[in-house]
Specification:
- By secondary structure, this protein is an alpha+beta fold.
- It has four domains: about 140 residues, OB fold (Dihydrolipoamide Acetyltransferase, E2P), CATH 2.40.50; about 130 residues, OB fold (Dihydrolipoamide Acetyltransferase, E2P) (Beta Barrel); about 140 residues, Nucleic acid-binding proteins (OB fold (Dihydrolipoamide Acetyltransferase, E2P), Beta Barrel), CATH 2.40.50.140; about 180 residues, OB fold (Dihydrolipoamide Acetyltransferase, E2P) (Beta Barrel).
- Helix content is about 15%, strand content about 25%.
- The chain has 17 helices and 35 strands.
- The strands form six sheets. Strands 7, 8, 9, 10, 11, 12, 13 and 14 form an eight-stranded mixed sheet that branches. Strands 23, 28, 29, 31, 32, 34 and 35 form a seven-stranded mixed sheet that branches. A five-stranded mixed beta barrel has the order 2-3-4-6-5.
- A hairpin with a 2-residue loop joins strand 34 and strand 35.
- This is RPA1 related single stranded DNA binding protein, X-linked.
- GO terms for molecular function: single-stranded DNA binding.
- One of its GO terms (cellular component) is nuclear speck.
- InterPro entries: NA-bd_OB-fold, RADX.
- Pfam families: RADX.
């Protein structure tokens, strides 16, 4: 394995372009061997560019011929500070891009000025790219080594046919393990976060070893705690792994660490439990082989005083002593630690090693669990959201990766709602889908009973682990609650359950409180409100799959209904697919993209004339339509449009926007409504819309943001659609379907809402997604998923089974009519901004605070 041994040279290229002298090529200069295309084959464009560079007195050239090449890989790594750098810079991640011209593959260095093309997922695997400026960067410490540097590129559409059989022109690029072209690092990082192990340096084949313990001196943890300060040499430890943390990457440009990783193990013997820290090159060697429950023999370790600010996880067994005064350190050197996995069959009862216990909780028990309580869950995945990212710190390049999931266990009509962060298990995190049995350990309860809707969900911790494929042989299978779940799942039919499964889409969770003052106290940002003039920058600063929530002030001046599965929406979806493949240039990456919003779909035509007819619908419902603000909210009666906010059933401070119900006037029963307007605009908007200094158009709903009904036979395709973009190209299996071919889990469509700034100078178009699925109203999992969306309209069934639910257009008309009551009212809007990559950005209206609840 690669570690500190065989340390690579700093500077450009471990393997680069070849020496131009043919004699040297035949001699095989390291890193400089060029494969020549056969005489009968077409000539390599990469080869011609290399020859042009070698013949040019300049290091930077414009290729004489610009042809499309295919992007096969985009790989990220940290580049150390150059010796000439006197002031440490923030982490600078670099990218190597592997291209193919159909004859050869070549790994190239991407000029850092083009990094934003990767940040926005414009430069990605599978696309065709034209390179119009190339330079050569040489390693001055080695003979004949240099690398191609891409200085100007134009990213085009996804390639229809991609061949992975073309060889590398430079054989050194095929060497294992893969190494970055520049710097002293021996490995690449995961493309979108630092927690996931990535690449071939991460070993998985460590096996247990039969041992003879007769000559091995072993010390207990409690005895070591009392004597370690006076010892130079430490006897071996015989311990069981109780918890294992996710990886921590601590690389910095000014630190010359080859593999700067760290992970924590909580280990225990009969006398106590202690933290073990695995450092640096030991992590790639051992991390993927160590799992909770294994018994280890640790030799040649070091001991130090524990870090005072780290909080250890609470032992599952309260009888085990928590040792917090010392830490065990495992290193590849100083001293070189010896780690041995002990076969379970060789573990003796007299060692009295603690058994692995779990804290499994059922969904019915969760309602009574206190905040911050730790638990394990097992259940059936009924909803898997798309992968999202959030910044660890502002103005940094480091992100967390996470997704929302729903887990049902049969003990409640409500599922577990889980905020699942990456647990350094990408093989599971990137391959979960509905209908799978799922286990997640060390989850923390997040709850707030003092807001409406009440907040209750689970989130992963540093020690969380996930399991998805078969539970046979796992230690938790002996737990009584696990056995009960397994019995419950045997009663479910796959065909029946598949109808209730949903994957992907925009998921606005967690919900915000009912008043703006509670919202203000619940978030941690420097500036609570975002000025309309700052919204564009907030949007353009977002990176791929980053989602951010902001609050703005304004006036709702227009609303338009976009029906689901209508001709309008189908055309919009087609436009979306075309725009998703719109070419992007590297020039746009170097400057602020002031034209991004001009590419958005918008409607500047008047919004006052179009109406659509509605067929006769029986609206004799004993239950009014309610605004459901979360899965635990008690429904409240909603006033008719025009009634005072102090009407019966409405408390002061309760939001009034989008409170909608059908007209239940008995005089209208059995009669058809004449017309329902599908759009509205205020007189204020007619006066101001042509005099704006800026109008932001972000109301389009892209296919990726629509939750889809899950189908098992297409599970791989659907999982890929809602995962992050891969670092290396993965060929599809057969002819892949289109995302629009899968049925939406929504049936109401969406709204385009225009919010005008208080100064009447800037406006923004945003999307609003109420959820409404009449055919699924009796299905608890689907209904729970949909009604957990903030401000979601749902129609409870009346006791009379013959009552019919109002149609989507009737609902849309009621919503639009309710909005007209807010004409010229100053509101605070909570917006969710989502960057889908490739210059596709959506802005959703998550909630509105009216004057009664903004104080």
């Amino acid at each position: 394995m690669s570690g500190e041994s065989g340390q690579p040279e700093a500077g450009p290229s471990h393997a680069g372009i070849g020496w131009p002298n043919p004699e040297r090529n035949r001699a095989g200069v390291p890193g400089g061997v060029i494969r020549r295309a056969g005489a009968q084959g077409r000539r390599s464009w990469i080869q011609k560019v290399l020859e042009q560079i070698m013949d040019s007195p300049l290091q930077c050239v414009t290729p004489s011929e610009v042809v499309p090449v295919t992007v096969l890989a985009v790989q990220r790594y940290l580049l150390e500070d150059e010796p000439r750098d006197t002031v440490p810079k923030p982490p600078l991640y670099c990218y190597d891009v592997t291209i193919s011209d159909g004859v050869y593959q070549e790994k190239c260095y991407l000029d850092p000025s083009l990094n934003s093309l990767v940040y926005q997922n414009i430069l990605k695997v599978g696309i065709q790219m034209r390179i119009s400026r190339v330079s050569c960067l040489y390693n001055e410490k080695r003979i004949g080594q240099g690398i191609l540097c891409l200085g100007n590129v134009h990213c085009g559409e996804t390639s229809d046919t991609i061949c992975l059989e073309t060889p590398f022109r430079n054989r050194a690029h095929e060497e294992k393990p893969e190494r970055p072209l520049r710097g002293g690092k021996s490995h690449y990082l995961a493309l979108w976060n630092n927690e996931d192990p990535y690449g071939d340096i991460w070993l998985t084949d460590k096996q247990p070893e039969e041992l003879n313990f007769s000559d091995t001196k072993i010390i207990s943890l409690s005895h070591l705690e009392m004597t370690w300060a006076n010892r130079r040499n430490f006897p071996a430890l015989l311990v069981r792994i109780i918890h294992k943390s996710k990886l921590r990457y601590y690389g910095k440009p000014d630190k010359k660490m080859i593999e700067p990783y760290q992970t924590f193990l909580e280990v225990a013997d009969s006398s106590g439990t202690v933290s073990v820290i695995m450092w640096n090159a030991l992590c790639p060697e051992w991390f993927k082989s160590l799992r909770v429950g294994l018994v280890l023999l640790l030799q040649d370790y070091s001991v130090k005083k524990s870090y005072p600010f780290r909080i250890q996880p609470v032992p599952v067994d309260p009888q085990i002593k928590l040792i917090s005064t010392m830490e065990i350190c495992l290193n590849l050197r100083d001293p070189p630690t010896n780690i041995i996995i002990v076969p379970e069959k060789q573990v003796k009862p007299e060692w009295r090693l603690p058994k692995l216990n779990h804290r499994f909780t059922t969904r019915s028990e969760l309602d009574n669990m206190p905040e911050n309580c730790i638990c394990d869950v097992i259940g059936l995945l009924v909803f898997v959201g798309r992968v999202q990212r959030s910044k660890k710190k502002e103005n940094r390049e480091d992100f967390w990766s996470y997704r929302w999931i729903h887990i049902a266990d049969g003990t409640s009509e409500q599922p577990f709602i889980v905020e699942l962060f990456s647990t350094s298990q990408p093989e599971i995190f990137e391959n979960i889908y509905p209908m799978a049995n799922f286990v997640c350990t060390q989850l923390k309860v997040v709850r707030n009973d003092n807001q409406v809707p009440k907040l209750l969900y689970l989130t992963t911790t540093n020690e969380s682990g996930v399991f998805i494929t078969g539970h046979r042989g796992q230690p938790y299978t002996y737990d009584a609650k696990v056995k009960n779940f397994i019995q419950w799942i045997k009663t479910k039919s796959d065909s029946g359950e598949q109808r209730n499964m949903v994957i992907g889409g925009y998921y606005p969770y967690p919900p915000v409180p009912e008043t703006f003052s509670k919202y203000s106290s619940s978030i941690k940002v420097q500036s609570l409100l975002t000025a309309m003039s700052e919204v564009r920058k907030e949007i353009e600063d977002l990176q791929y799959r980053e989602q951010k929530r902001i609050a703005i002030q304004g006036i709702i001046t227009a609303i338009k209904y976009i029906p689901h599965s209508s001709t309008t929406e189908s055309a919009s979806a087609s436009d979306t697919l075309r725009n998703a493949n719109r070419p992007s240039t590297s020039q746009a990456a170097r400057v602020e993209n002031q034209e991004r919003n001009a590419k958005r779909h918008h409607h500047d035509e008047p919004m006052s004339s179009q109406c659509f007819p509605t067929t006769s619908t029986n609206l004799n419902l004993s239950n009014k339509i309610r605004i459901l603000q979360g899965p635990h909210t008690n429904p409240v009666a909603v006033p008719q449009p025009g009634t005072s906010v102090q009407a019966k059933g409405i408390k002061p401070g309760m939001p009034t926007i989008f409170n909608c119900r059908p007209n239940t006037n008995p005089n209208l029963q059995g009669k058809a409504r004449k017309t329902i307007s599908d759009r509205w605009e205020s007189q204020l908007w007619r006066e101001k819309k042509f005099g704006l200094i800026d109008h932001l158009h972000y109301s389009r709903v892209y296919p990726e943001s629509i939750p889809r009904k899950f189908t098992f036979e297409h599970r791989k395709f659907l999982s890929q659609q809602y995962n992050s973009q891969p670092s290396k190209y993965i060929p599809p299996e057969g002819r892949p379907p289109k995302l629009d071919d899968f049925k939406s889990a929504r049936s109401l469509g969406h709204f385009e809402v225009t919010i005008l700034g208080l100064n009447h100078e800037i406006a923004i178009d945003v999307a609003f997604l109420p959820m409404y699925c009449p055919e699924d109203i009796r299905t608890s999992q689907i209904d729970t998923l949909l009604t957990s969306m903030n401000y979601s309209c749902a129609y409870p069934r009346d006791a009379n089974a013959n009552d019919r639910l109002p149609g989507p257009r009737a609902v849309a008309g009621d919503i639009i009519k309710a909005v007209t009551e807010l004409d010229r009212v100053h509101i605070v809007g909570i917006l969710d901004i989502c960057n889908l990559g490739n210059n596709n950005v959506e802005v959703y209206l998550h909630k509105i605070y009216s004057p009664e609840n903004t104080s």
